[in-house]
UniProtKB/TrEMBL annotation:
Belongs to the LeuD family. LeuD type 1 subfamily. It comes from the Bacteria. Pathway: Amino-acid biosynthesis; L-leucine biosynthesis; L-leucine from 3-methyl-2-oxobutanoate: step 2/4. It is an enzyme of class 4 (lyase). This is 3-isopropylmalate dehydratase small subunit. Residues 5-123 form the Aconitase A/isopropylmalate dehydratase small subunit swivel domain. Catalyzes the isomerization between 2-isopropylmalate and 3-isopropylmalate, via the formation of 2-isopropylmaleate. Its EC number is 4.2.1.33. InterPro entries: 3-IsopropMal_deHydase_ssu, Aconitase/3IPM_dehydase_swvl, AconitaseA/IPMdHydase_ssu_swvl, IPMI_Swivel, LeuD. Heterodimer of LeuC and LeuD. SUPFAM superfamilies: LeuD/IlvD-like.
């Protein structure tokens, strides 16, 4: 995974609460065994009609949000089933950061394991960003080291993240990489077991 320290990008506002993983990536697209290729199906039932044509009514299809890399949404984002395909689709589409007042626990952990930074802000802070991003093109900078979300003029919001998750993202580690940080201890243990055995 790529490390995340500071990310600056265009914001896409999805002003909806309780967005579940079946809305993020519908079940009919879960047949792939690799992590790539899911981005095209992100929010598929909202983005496309029954004929596969883009819906003008869904704001993500607006060209002004092309190249957005920060997704901001309402409360309880990623609820529903625990499918890891949901963060795969989000990352494959191009989003590196998700901001919301709260996340489903399993989805939050799956984001971190796949190199997406999930940021929890208050409801008021989230709504302030959503409203501004709906009115104009908004770029934010998310600084994981300083735990800050800022824009060029008014926003300067701090967020909490556990040390464990922060270190995983800062270093680009998945859980295997975290385990391998103890490789010397693991090797020493194995060598002791061979002597005892």
């Amino acid at each position: 995974m790529e490390p995340i320290r500071v990310h600056s990008g265009l914001v896409y506002p999805l002003n909806r609460s309780n967005v579940d993983t079946d809305q993020i990536i519908p079940k009919q697209f879960l047949k792939r065994i690799e992590r790539q290729g899911f981005g095209q199906f992100l929010f598929y039932n909202w983005r496309f009609d029954e004929e596969g044509e883009k819906r003008d009514s869904f704001t993500m299809n607006d060209e002004k949000y092309n190249d957005a890399s920060i997704l901001i949404a309402g409360d309880n984002f990623g609820c529903g089933s625990s499918r890891e395909h949901a963060p795969w689709a989000i990352l494959d589409y191009g989003f590196k950061v998700i901001i919301a007042p709260s996340f489903a626990d399993i989805f939050y952990n799956n984001c971190v394991k796949n190199g997406i930074l999930p940021v929890k802000l208050t409801e008021d802070e989230t709504q302030a960003i959503i409203k501004k991003a709906e009115q104009q093109k908004l770029h934010l900078t998310v600084d994981l080291e300083k735990q800050l979300v800022v824009d060029e003029d008014e926003f300067n919001f701090s967020f909490d993240i556990s040390d464990y998750h922060k270190q995983m993202l800062l270093n680009g580690w998945d859980e295997i990489a975290v385990t391998l940080t103890n490789e010397e201890k693991i090797t020493a243990y194995e060598e002791r077991q061979q002597i005892i055995g």
